[in-house]
Amino acid sequence: MKFGKRLKQQIQESLPGWRDKFLSYKDLKQLLNLISSAPPVLSGSVEYVRAESEFVVLLNKEIDKLNSFFMEKEEDFIIRHKELQQRIQRMIAKSGSEASEIDYKAEMRKIRKDIVDFHGEMVLLINYSNVNYTGLAKILKKYDKRTGGLLRLPFIQKVLQQPFFTTDLISKLIKECEITIDSLFPAPAEKKARGEIEAITVAGEGIFRNTVAALLTMQEIRRGSSTYSHFSLPPLNLPDTDVVKSLQLSSPIPIP
Amino acid sequence: MEARPALSIQRSGTQQLNNCGASGALSTSFPVLPSALEEKYPNLPDSQQVPVERQFRPCTSTVVSPISSSSGVVGHMFSSSSGLSTDLHFSSVSQQEKHSRQSLFISQSTSCGTSMLFQQASHSGVLHSTASSQYTKENNDTSWCTDSLDFLDYPINQNNPLDSCNTGEILPSEDLNKRNWEWADQLISDDDALTSSWNELIAETNVTDPGLKVEVPQQSTTFSIQQPQASQQLPASSGETCPVVPPTPSGSGAPTKQRMRWTPELHEAFVEAVNKLGGSERATPKGVLKLMKVEGLTIYHVKSHLQKYRTARYKPEPSEGSSEKKHALIDDLSSLDLKSGIEITEALRLQMEVQKRLHEQLEIQRNLQLRIEEQGRYLQMMFEKQCKSGLDLLKGSSSNLENPLTDLTEPVLKSPDKSNLGVSEGNDHKMDEVGEKQKSPENEVPENLEATATDTPNSPPPKRAKLDE
User: Fold this and answer.
1) Which region holds residue B296: left if phi is over 0, alpha if psi is between -120 and 50, else beta?
2) pLDDT higher than threshold 90 for residue B335
3) What CA–CA distance (Å, rounded) separates B22 from B52?
4) Is the pLDDT of residue B254 over 90?
5) Quick one: where's region Disordered (chain B) (predicted)?
């Protein structure tokens, strides 16, 4: 399957507020087609030059869009991270006093759910960053190929430094989150049989679905293609892929 | 210059032509041009080869602007003319075109003044929408004002998104941003040579626009260092309290609505300030800003952040799933027994597993991507070095072939023309082979390139054929 289609799939599975923030791969591709079909500059063509500059303009616009969305979400996450930490601290302090058991449990469950969702969203943001980067790399490669230009290499170097691709902070937050989660959750129960996993799904459908879809899409995208080059990523072989796939197919059962 | 109205459409494209075409510039028969062109493009092929090569490099690696996109094209245009034929007419015609377009830009830009430009330049988001809307609006309009905004917008606004947190370099020796500014500078400074009326306009530009200070571009290696350089040194994700603001190209004092990149430390300082002021409800943006005492932080940043902060506190964890569902969940949960509690926990654990796996894979993928690009860059460097040394070899052997070879090797490297596409494909293919065989690049590339540089039957035929011409 082509990248454009995969990207569309990803977008469909993604969280609602994010759907229009992805790279406009299709538009860029269309512009590229325009460039290729326009008569070459030598014959004094205006359309060619125009299409080319439109392409670059759109590229820059897209990068701006990606950056803004990413940084906004990053900001949100920073705030939420702090808030979660405070909530947990408050809860721990409360648990010292003789508060209602049920309330405590309810609060605990809520916090657990929230923090897992928070973790999930952050991972999805990194996925967002990566998917868009991949799209950019691909479209630039196509551009170079079709027009014989040399836009790709230097442009990609710049992209690598863009805020939306420098995801170190989010990664750090994620790791901190994982540590907190480990401390919040009781020791894991014995490993259930694989078949039982299907019966257990979570109410956070959006995030969970999106995560599963992201994993599978990543694997699909990295399957060998006809244009495999030393710039391509090696194929991704996830263990338990069939399990992950089954998670995707089964409709989520909301917790009663 | 009746062609002007038509030319206004392609101004962005012609910027590219201006910059890069110049590198391959030949001596022209136009009396008006030579002085301007020589000033602007000091490294003409007849005089020096190496600078020309370097000049080409900047052209093509100027990524952000349309320059690079068509540099190949232009490069080809000139190479074919300069190398293969004595078609001076052609080249001079194109130079005339270039010239007229170039002057078109300059007068456009200056007539409108650049203070407006820089106000917009500071807001990259606005810039882009302006640029593109201007672009589409002014297609058939010969109004110079809007065109000028577009013209100078390109180097500027393209600096913004792509040069933020620029700690890397495209080329070993030169910085992309410098090149952009140099390009813009060159185009502006050239006016002095054109006509007296344009001189006047230029003076106007220089007066109104201190940010874009012009230094005479004698060498391609000396660039006027603009303000963006300083601001761009801020690292992308800093752990410092210093706010990382995507750089603005000017200090024109416009209320920058630049997006600020928040960090946890910065947020800590924010929270402290808010608490000192009595909580999120009572704190005012102005107060918080004063208390925080962070340089570069504006009240807009604080305002929007405060808003987010308030929302986060009074509607805790509004995740993408429905929150009302969750409240119902909690009520139900509290009445359920332990078993379902465990089930829920297990479900959450599963979710965590999947998320962690995705994160892991993403990290791996990202590192791979970084390394791939790094390797690609390295290969490119090696390739260019080899070609250059190959050039030197050839230079030593046959002096009369110097000029065409110089011009030819560049387009060969860049493969701008469709008829040269075979060469580029060949090169790419060669590099692909290098990658796929997974030999260490240090060994493989020099072998390949040396083979190309010297006389071997294994070099890609088209390239050899071209050189033989």
Assistant:
1) left
2) no
3) 10
4) no
5) 226-258, 402-469
A50-to-B11, B125, B183, B428 alpha-carbon distances in Å:
9, 21, 20, 27
Token couple for B324: 């009302």
Q: In the prediction, which pLDDT does A41 show?
A: 64
**From the CB of residue A228, how many other CB atoms can be counted at a distance below 10 Å?**
15
- Show the domain range for A133: 8-186+195-246
- What is the maximum alpha-carbon separation in chain B? 94
CA A203, A207, A209, A212 dihedral sign is negative
Interface mutation target, options A157, A241, A245, chain B, most CBs of B under 10 Å = A157
| Cβ neighbours around B171 below 10 Å, total | 18
3-state secondary structure string, A114-179?
HHHHHHHHHHHHHHHHHHHHHHHHHHHHHHHHHHCCCCHHHHHHHHHCCCCCCCHHHHHHHHHHHH
**In total, how many domains does chain A have?**
1
Selected residue with higher pLDDT from A217 and B444: A217
Secondary structure (H, E, C), A187-243: CCCCCCCHHHHHHCCCCCHHHHHHHHHHHHHHHHHCCCCCCCCCCCCCCCCCCCHHH
List, in order, residues 6 or more apart from B77 with CB less than 8 Å away.
Answer: A41, A42, B21, B24, B94, B416
**Contact A150/B68, CB-based, under 8 Å?**
yes
Asked if residue A165 lies in contact with residue A218, where contact means CB atoms within 8 angstroms, the answer is no
- A38 located within any domain: yes
How close does chain A come to B177, measured CA to CA in Å?
11
Instruction: Please state the ipTM of this predicted complex.
Output: 0.85
CA–CA min distance A146, chain B (Å): 9
CB contact under 8 Å between B128 and A157, yes or no, is: no
Going by pLDDT thresholds of 50, 70 and 90, the confidence category of residue A222 is confident
Residue A20 inside a domain? The answer is yes
**For residues B108, B110, B115 and B120, what is the CA-based torsion angle, rounded to 10 degrees?**
20
Band of pLDDT at residue B244, cut at 50, 70 and 90: low
Query: In which band, very low, low, confident or very high, does the pLDDT at A240 lie, cut at 50, 70 and 90?
Result: low
C-beta atoms of A157 and B63 within 8 A:
yes
Alpha helices (H) along B166-283: 176-189, 191-194, 196-208, 227-231, 264-276
**Burial bucket for residue B279 (CB in 10 Å: 0-12, 13-18, 19+):** exposed
DSSP B4-61: HHHHHHTHHHHHHIIIIIHHT----S-SSHHHHHHHH----TTT-SHHHHHHHHHHHH
pTM of the model: 0.55
Is A214 part of a structural domain of the chain? yes
Average pLDDT rounded to a whole number, residues A82-99: 82
Is A255 part of a structural domain of the chain?
Answer: no
What count of residues does chain A have? 256
Place of tokens 């430094």: A161
Whether residue A219 has pLDDT greater than 70: yes
> How far is it, in rounded angstroms, from Cα B29 to Cα A153?
37
